[in-house]
Amino acid sequence: MSFSLPTYHPPDFTTAKLAAAPLTRFARVQRDGVAPPDYHATSIFPEYLHLAPGDWRLLTDSRMDCVVRRGEKGALEVVEFRRLRCGDRVALGRHEDGSDGIYVHTSGFRFAEQRPEKFAFRTLTTRESSFSFDYDELSTLLEHEREAGFVLWVLGPALAFDRDARAAFVRLVRNGYVQGLLAGNALPTHDLEAALYGTALGREIYRKRPVAGGHYKHLDALNTLRELGSIEAAVKRGLVGEGIVHALVEKEIPYVFAGSIRDDGPLPEVVADAYAAQDTMRALARRATTVICLATQLHTIATGNMAPSYKVLADGAVRPVFFYSVDMSEFAAQKLINRGSLTTRAILTNVQDFVVTLERGLKARDQGPGS
Amino acid sequence: MSFSLPTYHPPDFTTAKLAAAPLTRFARVQRDGVAPPDYHATSIFPEYLHLAPGDWRLLTDSRMDCVVRRGEKGALEVVEFRRLRCGDRVALGRHEDGSDGIYVHTSGFRFAEQRPEKFAFRTLTTRESSFSFDYDELSTLLEHEREAGFVLWVLGPALAFDRDARAAFVRLVRNGYVQGLLAGNALPTHDLEAALYGTALGREIYRKRPVAGGHYKHLDALNTLRELGSIEAAVKRGLVGEGIVHALVEKEIPYVFAGSIRDDGPLPEVVADAYAAQDTMRALARRATTVICLATQLHTIATGNMAPSYKVLADGAVRPVFFYSVDMSEFAAQKLINRGSLTTRAILTNVQDFVVTLERGLKARDQGPGS
Amino acid sequence: MSFSLPTYHPPDFTTAKLAAAPLTRFARVQRDGVAPPDYHATSIFPEYLHLAPGDWRLLTDSRMDCVVRRGEKGALEVVEFRRLRCGDRVALGRHEDGSDGIYVHTSGFRFAEQRPEKFAFRTLTTRESSFSFDYDELSTLLEHEREAGFVLWVLGPALAFDRDARAAFVRLVRNGYVQGLLAGNALPTHDLEAALYGTALGREIYRKRPVAGGHYKHLDALNTLRELGSIEAAVKRGLVGEGIVHALVEKEIPYVFAGSIRDDGPLPEVVADAYAAQDTMRALARRATTVICLATQLHTIATGNMAPSYKVLADGAVRPVFFYSVDMSEFAAQKLINRGSLTTRAILTNVQDFVVTLERGLKARDQGPGS
Amino acid sequence: MSFSLPTYHPPDFTTAKLAAAPLTRFARVQRDGVAPPDYHATSIFPEYLHLAPGDWRLLTDSRMDCVVRRGEKGALEVVEFRRLRCGDRVALGRHEDGSDGIYVHTSGFRFAEQRPEKFAFRTLTTRESSFSFDYDELSTLLEHEREAGFVLWVLGPALAFDRDARAAFVRLVRNGYVQGLLAGNALPTHDLEAALYGTALGREIYRKRPVAGGHYKHLDALNTLRELGSIEAAVKRGLVGEGIVHALVEKEIPYVFAGSIRDDGPLPEVVADAYAAQDTMRALARRATTVICLATQLHTIATGNMAPSYKVLADGAVRPVFFYSVDMSEFAAQKLINRGSLTTRAILTNVQDFVVTLERGLKARDQGPGS
């Protein structure tokens, strides 16, 4: 199975309707954090603003449910409402067909015939769907991304509780399939608990036997890390010698750990402010060409909000951003699917098995047909 | 069905073992936010510290996974690790049987025979469990709490999407069954969307027909509230005339809306910093005598961490804190049950139906046997 | 909220394509239970066979995945493959647009504008959908069906485990909202356990306290009923004085209890042969105008297979058959929704609450606006 | 990881209480299929009947919720109520401690210390549990069983929908890890659909593209098999050349396909009568030393009812019967766990991944440490 990105077909702005479209209107922000009436809100799709006759400008680094700010020199920036400042110029208009000078392009990518049924029947993905093809498709995609893309992983804590899944993820990091990672406080905490004490929530990580004082283990991990001041210090001093977080530090993979009200500790690196966390998460999300979310509803939806369905590359080319949501529950996995993008996939399974199986597939591909 | 609180039976400190127990040891904090080695971590159960021979002091306002700080005049405070400051004196010891001068009392409450099976068989609560008794038990409990307790509700956004559930919850507020409320940004946002536009996520809240520009509705609600500066302003100016948030303002019920990385907007009242949010949430949680969590894993677990299984009343009496988790999934509902407290209940159902059914039961009781 | 059935619009057989369509072909069965090559299989939609020029005959009593047998006098019968006999004439053709003399009419019903979004967005029904409207819609539907239709209920055992749900269902039976019932062995067994011993799976049905020898209760119920020889005998002799089964017998509501490999006992009435059970179930299903399935995947899918989306009334009028699936899991509830019929609804909740809430709504309507 | 079966420790019948226990009482059946009053019902545990002073007889081939029939020569047989005949002698007594001459031995097996936590904390198995150890434990168990046991697989249809899972299961059959198989009509139907047409429910089994006339594919498979008269005929004539069913026929592995009311067709081999199906299923179940159930609630519970927690081997030795339930939902997986046997395990994942991962682990073990 070889891989090729679907090609992007820009809108035809020479059609009568679009050629006759008005220019995009803008209005000034009157109060910090508040958009002017009739503001335009962005979607996950490529959007074009009509800035001068015949000059339709594609938004870069877009995301859902934001507004478009026009900079001094005409540069367009997609920003969260909370980041608006008095005097900013914000795009107006709620029609997406060009009649407000804004065109939302929902059908830019032509996918190979591999998934015509998605159009035809919109059949739901459930636990009874076949996923062999998805594993293979994702493998070929990741091989491509390793060279030419940016794979952002979004992890719930479950991955840290299982020996084989942890080991498989570490190999993914080492072999170049992880360019960035988003998580909360729990994933690194339990991964560090495993690295420091060999336990997960107070049980041996492999045999699951409870250890003495087990319910202290994750608190001890947090307390130790807080004392050392940083994960990097713990790695450099040799206290943390294996695991997911260790691999990230070793390979200098950027990560963001966003704080939440559930947290103990927290770890020193955790970003306490939800919106500061959004900003740092989005700094990674805007680089992403593929996003893979494992068993975390909070972080999956947060990242889904930040990740548009396309990316404008340095050379101006437009490519899709793929978004995978892996979860045990249709309810959770379908939340993102419901956004309607063809670049979104749900895989219904336990993330432990998902990571182990995916990594084995990648390894087999690496070793070639003789393996 | 009448109601009586289970009585609390303190430990017998005259037993040989406890009488001979050492005094609690304390050590100084050497670095802000870091507990000294061998720190003692708290549980959800009543805990006693042996401060002077025969003087066992019960922790008040306790919570799970914290440390005990001894104040100048011997006062004991249960604090999060992150709140420790250099020089603070922190209790040490990891044995819970008194041998470290700390006694954790897991069996203080004698429940009436109503739930002996919990001990006998530990049968799981599942969707096939019968819940008629739980509804009635909760009704009698809430009648009691309305006079003598503090009922804290923890709400996911689902409640705001349904007309009847919203109306039922508003009646609960008006009739005195709600003393405090915890939620994220989504619950008030969608409740305000309903109050302002009659929609839920862009559809008519009752008939579910999509309205024009539906996907702008929640953004418009957020933008409007941000412009007005506060929910209270929106209520006072008459823009928000009904709904959950309106009822809270009208009845002056305290609430905390904690920010998260999923948020759009956010609303002006939302607390951005996760740990500042924890502090304000805990200020309500420590007043709670009953906690009812509806369809929110994040806030349920966060509140569960903050809510111990007991409360020391003003007169020194000790009573249980009841904790209800209502969810559609055994996985979510059982997370809290797994803590092992007898004061915790799971109810497996849709929270819309739960609120409607509970409120009807309370109303029928109010109207008396003739109704 | 008043109610009116959507009107049925037959196909226009005068269009050029249909006017020129060939007659339906038929072939003889060569072996019992085996359809001839190129057989036509039925769907849930109205289907017309072209028997003579201009004579398009609508199938009555249709169901999914069956074949069409032509009787001696031209009568058409939709039959299961297993019921075919040597020499039977079976309709051929796999095109549904008339080109094989068969026309499948998927858009015959014009629904009021109440659910246009189903076409527009195909938004999934999940646990977070609002259901107030669905309860009201179903109430108005049931009021109509009580006079003019046939409401078939399909019950999993969960309903028998809860006091309030049982009582509410009994009132539904007594008040005329139940015309037929399908279930397995477990529903009547546990309902009879409750009637005989006041227990559910060996616990008090209301207070859930385990009783002595609890695990014998359902076996004793089965053994007692097997000794008496029939449920009717148990009711007539006064041993069974309340409950779901009692109400069915009292009101002479027809029921089918289909056996399965899970069964203990079984009860005397249970049909052991799966296909004989299908036949008796279908005899009820073909009378149904509304089907309501509660928390049973096996029986819901089985009944869904037997229930087409329309019914030809005695006077030749065509009306829709409504199909409700109530379950806690999107996976289960959506199985039927996936069939694509507009007459199918999923409600995500606990069936205990569903029955209690629905019955209260119907009662309130019965008592009129003053209640 | 090496493997050793836990040893069985019979009860000590020389204790005062058991030595003084009365003999088991028996009573005659008065009516076919009806047990006499005070009948004893069996459990999943080893049970001993006191037939003569000091002669405690262990039940062989036991199962839950049955009665004990005493044959002419004193032989004891555990039979379903429905199989009782007038005049049969049935054991009486509802106490399990010997006081009725019946002793139920719940703690006969001494497990290595690998799972002490099961006793200590009764922690629930959920989707967040670690399963690396369970995979390895099961691998070592299956290696042992291949030589010395009988592994019975119980399959839902999901396995037949996925290319890699089907292939992995075929390898399990070929490599000797499958001694018997239980399923319904759907599993073989969709496996044969795949073998005949390369589709699963009308889509290409690997790429999931819909094929023309896709909804006829499973009906065509059924019709073809019904014409041929048997699966074996289809294999022998070369029409079915691969897949699960093909591997079973090829390796002469016994299977039972039990009919249900959901069935289309059915296939010729399917047993229509639920209780005849129980009898043939139990004939396999009584040979089983390990049972592995994949994603089928109906068949899992049915088989669980038939499979006791122990087996008496030909030489009189007693060994445990292991029971694995693999499912995506805690609700389903925990149903069996709730029986309380230490020999029962739940694994929460997608069965596709489970089979692929298990088979890879077994293959790696086969190839030895150098692989």
From TrEMBL, chains A, B, C, D:
Residues 142-357 form the Arginine dihydrolase ArgZ/ArgE-like C-terminal second subdomain domain. Pfam families: ArgZ-like_C_2nd. InterPro entries: ArgZ/ArgE-like_C_2nd (IPR048963). This is Arginine dihydrolase ArgZ/ArgE-like C-terminal second subdomain domain-containing protein.
